[in-house]
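Subject: sequence -> C-alpha cells, single chain

Hey, anyone have a minute? Need the predicted structure for the following. Not urgent.
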Amino acid sequence: MRINRGLGYVRAYIRSAPGTYVWLAVLFVTTVALHQMSPEFEQHFLRQRSTNIHELSHNPVRVLVASAMWIDSGRWLPYVLLYTVFQAPAERWLGTARWFAVCALAHVLATLISEGALLKAIRDGMAPHSAVNTLDIGVSYALAGVIGVLTYRFAFPWRYAYLLVILTVFTLPLAAGRTFTELGHLVSLLIGLACYPLTRGRGKAWNPKETLTAPRG
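Reply:
Had a minute. Here:
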C-alpha cells in the first residue's frame, strides 16, 4: 500500500532526526499554551522568559534555555517546514550531538553579542533605557546557525551559490533595519559558518546534480 509506505517513510525520517522533532513537539505544546493566555498575560509571561538585558543580568542560564522553548509569533506550522528543511537534514548529517552543539553555540553566542550591542546603544544614548526589557525569545538564532553550517553539506560549486543566497537573505534585513534582532540573525549565521570543524568526517558533500541525474529503479 502506498499510504503505508508513505507513513513508514515519514516515521523513519522523524526517527532519523529525534532532536529536531522532539524540539518541534515542545514548541507545539508551548504554542498551544500561549493561545490559552490573554494577550496581556502572554506578554508578561514571555518577557520573564526573554533573553533581554534585564533577565540576562539576573537569570542568564534560565532564560537562555527557556527562550528556546517558545515562539512569540504563536504560529507553529511554519516551523514544521523550516525544521524539516533545515534542522532535520543537519541533524541527520552531523549527528544529534554535533547538531545540538551548533544550535546551542548560535543561540547563546548570538544572544549575548546582540544584547551586548543593544546595551552599548543604550549607554551611548542611541536606544531608550526601556530597551533593557525588550522581548527577545524564540528559536531563530539556532535555526540561522544551522542554516549557516549546512553550507558545508553542499559540494562545489553549489556551496558558493548557497552561501551567496543565505548571506544575502541575512544581510539585507540588517542593512535595512539595523535592529539587534537582525544583528543576532547575521551573527548566528556566521557562527554556523565557523562550526566547520564539526562537519569533518561526516561523509561526502552532497552534489544536487548527481541526485537529479541518478538512474531511478
